Amino acid sequence: MSFAAFRASLRKAPFSPPRAARVVRTPSGAFRRYSTEVPKKSNTALFAGLGAAAVGGIAIYVYASDSNSAKEAGTAVKSGVQVAKSAAHFTPTKDDYQKVYNKIADIMEEAADKNYDDGSYGPVLVRLAWHASGTYDKETGTGGSNYATMRFEPEALHGANNGLHVARGIMEGIHEQFPWISYGDLWTLGGVCAIQEMGGPKIPWRPGRIDGFAPQATPDGRLPDGAQGAQHLRNVFYRMGFNDQEIVALSGAHALGRCHRDRSGFEGPWTFSPVTVSNEYYRLLLEEKWVWRKWDGPKQLQDKTTRSLMMLPSDYALTQDKAFRKWVEAYAKDQDVWFKDFSNVISHLFELGVPEAQFVASEGWIMKGTDEQ
């Protein structure tokens, strides 16, 4: 089919109306290690109609604008696949999304074989979901996870997104196996999977995001800058609609992963267990003695005892601001309290920018972990 014919077919497409290590035995009998030890009412029919109408509408928009972007054209083709499947009454069920979740969990393990970071792709998948969602601006209604615009330049090249090509590449491979899922749904489901498989709380999640195009990408500067302090954090997170307690709860995701000199400029892990979701981030913030690192990189702190951990200025600011510190203390004291608050707030983060009418369920689904299947 010619490009012009495809373009015409899209316009004519019929649309419906609008803590400790967890070792788990896999089915094959092998053992799967997901985390390191910590020291010391569904309406899936609506999805078919709304998904087809919304995605198809965007496809028409991009062709009408005569975009010459090859990536946008490729996305339009994939969006056309989504339209066709919706028109053919293909309605993904929760079980279909569970299969995607399981594939993500399997691929997380491949990092060990490839000597990636601390042996898991989990932290970088959480970061992808976080950065794809955290661009939301409540005043303009732009940004957020709905259009997955980090696929396009210049957003893909924003400084805060350095290194996320790794996560996007992983997810592209999964998308090839499940082409019916939107990138926004895939990326956020990846974040949910990573958190749960690394020992974290259950995260309510529901599908309904649609693929967008480069013109919908957000400007640089919407994500937090680790070199800044408390007021910067408030400026960024208040713009998304979060309060002080939620800012501190979300910051606990720094229990995962590490900084890289060739990406952010900073270097090192926040905790001794960077592939485990725990409240260690808060405990270490309060109990360790933090000193400024003497090196040729950007300003960051290191623990005085081992000099192997690091904190960013934005992390340290949580202990210096009275309103923030009380929540650091609460979460350091009780991991269950943090798990509950973190689950609620990151679920909300992952839904930023998505119109309620697009979701296929009124409440989030709880996806089963691989140890429950």
Automatic annotation (TrEMBL):
Q: Name one GO biological process term.
A: cellular response to oxidative stress
One function term, GO molecular function aspect = metal ion binding
Indicate where this protein resides in the cell: Mitochondrion intermembrane space; Mitochondrion matrix
Q: Which family does it belong to?
A: Belongs to the peroxidase family. Cytochrome c peroxidase subfamily.
Q: Which PANTHER family match?
A: CYTOCHROME C PEROXIDASE, MITOCHONDRIAL, THYLAKOID LUMENAL 29 KDA PROTEIN, CHLOROPLASTIC-RELATED
Q: What is this protein called?
A: Peroxidase
| PROSITE patterns, alphabetized | PEROXIDASE_1, PEROXIDASE_2, PEROXIDASE_4
TM ranges: 45-64
InterPro entries, per the entry = Ccp1-like (IPR044831), Haem_peroxidase (IPR002016), Haem_peroxidase_sf (IPR010255), Peroxidase_I (IPR002207), Peroxidases_AS (IPR019794), Peroxidases_heam-ligand_BS (IPR019793)
Protein's UniProt keywords contain Amino-acid biosynthesis: no
Q: What class of enzyme is it?
A: oxidoreductase
What EC number(s) does this enzyme carry?
1.11.1.-
**Taxonomic source organism:** Postia placenta MAD-698-R-SB12
The function of this protein is: Destroys radicals which are normally produced within the cells and which are toxic to biological systems.
